[in-house]
Amino acid sequence: MAAVAFRSAPASLDLAAGHVAMTVPMARPGEPGHLETWWSQEPPETGSAGEILYACGDEVAFCAATVEHRSVYAPVVERRYREVFAFLESHGYRRLLRVWNFIETINAANADGLEVYRDFCKGRADAFSAHPEFYRSMPAATGIGTTGSGISFFLLAVKDAEVRHIENRRQTPAYEYPERYGPRSPSFARATAMTTRPGEAPTLFVSGTASILGHETVFAGDIEKQCATTADNIAELIADCYGSAKGLTDADTVKAYVRHAHHVPYVRAFCEEAFGPRASLAVFNVDICRGDLLVEIEAVV
Ligand code: 3EB
User: Fold this and answer.
1) Which of 37, 44, 91, 163 has its CA 20 to 30 A from that of 261?
2) How many other C-beta atoms can be found within 10 angstroms of the C-beta atom of residue 120?
3) For a pocket test of ligand 1, which of 97, 124, 289 has the largest count of ligand atoms closer than 8 A to its C-beta?
């Protein structure tokens, strides 16, 4: 369905042979990139709808959009998200599965003095409000900085697969964060478990997860403790889904986002140790949606 290149290049979005080809600026010049591919069981139908591109299999859809640099993002983010939601609804993809959002200068102020992440959250939340089916069923997501300009996002949605969104007992649901974190709360669940056939084991998509307990950042300035708390938060979600049958070392893929380049070696070593040799690991040196967060980690288990 899709090939997403996280690398040192401007954002781009194109239709290629049988898939959507996307570049997300997530590396500095000279840094190695990371290629992610998403596959449907059958060759997907690809196309565009308004400003968005899609690749649709019988069961699962991939949709993507990019927005060039703006001084204020909420209106255009709302429009793009609404286009995606309208497309999914009209094609029978009833449930969102997983969303990734890549946001330029995520901690900077926009033209109105609002932090770009909060500006983005407002547009996304306004789109969710306009689509009650999706509003009632917010999926796992990542909202993270990039090394380029503009905003890119892509998502997976499904028709009939069973989808269960999971919150973390250790954390306030993000969509219930108090107003001091922005005019509209972030629209995502802590994890989403998908089961394709009844009786089959689920796949767990863990959201970007950080050193947050309740709604407060904990261990500001301490990379080691932020990593440990983040891993504990992820372990809690795995336990909710799998009980004691699976743990951190059962992750298939892990992506870590690290604010400071000098913390990259520590975070890489931490993830190798915590998640073990089974997981494929990608580490990105980008900003994170709260100024006091040093690291954020996501996984598929
Ligand atoms: C947090 O827990 C950290 O806005 O889509 C993590 C995952 C975070 C997703 C998003 C933000 C998002 O609030 C930030």
Assistant:
1) 37
2) 27
3) 289
For residue 59, give the nearest of 205, 196, 153, 191 by alpha carbon.
196
- Is the CB of 140 inside a 6 Å radius of any atom of ligand 1? no
The continuous run of DSSP H or E covering 77 comes out as helix 74-90
Nearest CA to ligand 1 atom 14: 289
Nearest to 257 by CA among 235, 232, 279, 289: 289
CA angle 128/134/136 to nearest 5° reads: 95
Tens-place pLDDT, residues 22-63: 999 999 999 999 999 999 999 999 999 999 999 999 999 999
DSSP H or E segment with residue 285: strand 280-285
From the list 78, 104, 115, 296, the catalytic residue is 296
Provide the token pair at 186: 């972030």
The Å distance, Cα 217 to ligand 1 centre, comes to 12
Contact present, 181 and 143 (Cβ < 8 Å) = no
Name the CATH code of domain 2-300 (choices 3.90.650.10, 3.30.1330.40, 3.10.20.30, 3.40.50.300): 3.30.1330.40
**Tens digit of pLDDT for each residue in 259-289?**
999 999 999 999 999 999 999 999 999 999 9
**Residues paired with residue 229 on neighbouring β-strands, in sequence order:** none
Q: CA-CA distance, 30 to 39, in Å (whole number)? A: 29
